[in-house]
User: What shape does this take?
Amino acid sequence: MVAGRTVKESDRAGMLYDMPLWRPPSEGTNLIVQATLGCSFNGCTFCSMYKTKPFRARPLADIFTDIEDMAADWPDAHRVFLADGDALVLPVDDLLQVLDKLHGAFPDLTRVSCYATPINLLRKSVGDLRRLRNHGLRLVYVGIESGSGTILKRIRKGATQKSMVEALGRAAEAGLKVSATVVLGLGGKGDWREHIDGTTEVVNRVPPTYLSTLQLTLDPTVAGRFAQAYGVPYTPQDDDGILLEQERLLETLAPPTPVIFRSNHASNCLALAGTLPKDKERLLAEIAAARSGTSALRPSFLRGL
Assistant: This one.
């Protein structure tokens, strides 16, 4: 994830964003429209993204004004990310109006994307999600974080393994592409196998289009709450432990359809890129080289969220 500063800041179109503004790294060159502010759930103990920003849905008139102003400055925009934390919380009719407004303002628009929590995917029917897809919503970013029911409970994700599978399956049935993230290190040294094995169980059942890993980095502002909510003593993983998690993840992933895999986010100690299952052996060989010391890990000072 990438954030801006914590003050109102203008973008290239002269718009004012309500900061902090977070978006996936892959959306860095795309137009960002704030449909909501903050995160409607905002309960995950490892996440510091919107702890200082109360959630609210923006009035449609304000969103439309932003779109009109942006279109005047960037009429050839072809991809839009709907911020903030999970625009999918909005009612279907509101989202349809936003999508139609975007397509009317940007004739070259090919994709609209947004974050989506499992909760908000499950609050919409497959038919609703398919309507959104038909009106231009093509990709949703979903934080799986972990497939272990125990870990999901400890990090206060607001989802179980069963509900996570159902949410991902609902998105896939509606024709939405899913970019899913897994957070390495969430189980610590004590529960890492359960964390990884539960995760591969979810991914093998409902493979996303894209799967990325992040490496757990706790902001000091949430570290205490994370440890308290975890319920049992938590010992962080070191890089050796993270590599073991990556190795086991790739060894046990056997998706029935191809999954584009990445661990090149700046938080990761080892950047990997490939398609599963086709590139599994090459990726495992790269991990083995890192574990043996024959290839270097990303220096600590170059890592971050």
Q: What stands out?
A: The first helix runs from residue 60 to 73.
